[in-house]
Amino acid sequence: MSVKPLLRKLISVTVFLLVSMIALFWILRYSEDQKFSRQFKAKVEPLIGLLTDESGKLLLKESEIVDTLQKSSCLREENIHQIGNVKLYLPHCEFQGRDTTIFAIFADSKGYGGWIKVLALFERQKDRTMKLWKVKVLDARDETEGLGKNVLSDEFQKRFYNVPESGLEKGLKLDLEEFPPTFDAEEAKKEGFILVADIMSYATVSAKAVANAIQVMYNYLKNLN
After folding, report:
1. Are residues 141 and 193 located together in one domain of the fold?
2. Could you read off the pLDDT of 116-147 as tens digits, one per residue?
3. What CA–CA distance (Å, rounded) separates 120 from 135?
4. Domain limits for position 118
5. Do 34 and 124 share a domain, yes or no?
6. Do 81 and 38 reside in the same domain of the chain?
7. How does residue 20 score in pLDDT terms, banded at 50, 70 and 90?
8. What percent of the chain shows pLDDT beyond 70?
9. Which of 10, 133, 162, 172 lies 20 to 30 Å (CA to CA) from residue 99?
10. Do residues 126 and 170 both lie within one domain?
């Protein structure tokens, strides 16, 4: 075979490989973009839900939420920081209110059947006291139907709303595992007790997984500068 046909064949193969590599790059890029889009949507929708009151009004300025999500990498990165059976997804989101700072943080916590995904909002005052504001359980697919999966119910999640710093400092406990000092739900929260026995009977592990996630979140956030 002469040099010229061989050279043409070599160039042809090289061009084919180059085109194939470019096509593969864009296919992978598109796949990653689609994956990121799904992951971002799965986070931002429940986050906006928690930042909205019952009338559908945003609790923070829309411009503040949009500005934070555009400038921050809080929903774009997933640096996993594992502590025991809880995996924190960092960095957290931080929103500035008029007199408070709102922290949003995601975590996976080991339940009875698998990982339970939790989103929590914490509110810090100017004097740096912090409370657990709201909680949303995003995924409990591996928990038992009618038992552990009850962590997905609004009724269960709202039991964790507005837990003061005193309760978080004492450590969250459930009335499923320890007899509470009072059966007044709000007073019990001050001592770190969450009353869920009427909802989560025979599903202590799943309920405790949510409490564990929240406690690890708080311990992380309180040490921020």
Report:
1. yes
2. 999 999 999 999 999 999 999 999 999 999 99
3. 4
4. 61-221
5. no
6. no
7. low
8. 82
9. 172
10. yes
- Span 174-184, average pLDDT: 93
The verdict on 69 and 88 lying in the same domain is yes
Looking at the fold, whether 46 and 106 belong to one and the same domain comes out as no
Q: Which of 104, 36, 37, 31 is nearest to 72 (CA)?
A: 104
Total domains, the chain:
2
Rounded Cα–Cα distance for residues 70 and 62 (Å):
12
Predicted confidence band at 15 (pLDDT cuts at 50, 70, 90)? very low
Where do the H-state alpha helices sit in 51-175? 62-71, 154-158, 165-170
Residue 55 domain flag: no
Cα separation of 19 and 183, whole Å? 69
In a domain, 56, yes or no: no
Query: Do 23 and 130 sit in the same domain of this protein?
Result: no
- The residue whose two tokens read 């000092």 is 181
Q: Calculate mean pLDDT across residues 43-52.
A: 86
Place of tokens 């939790």: 118
Task: Identify the sign of the CA torsion 131, 136, 141, 143.
Answer: positive
Question: In this structure, is residue 29 part of a structural domain?
Answer: yes
34/68 same-domain check = no
Q: Give the three-state DSSP class for 217.
A: helix
33 class by beta-carbon count within 10 Å (0-12 exposed, 13-18 middle, 19+ buried): exposed
| Greater model confidence, 191 or 66 | 191
Helix/strand/coil percentages in the chain, nearest 5: 45, 25, 30
Residue with tokens 């906006």: 48
4's tokens: 């010229």
pTM: 0.82
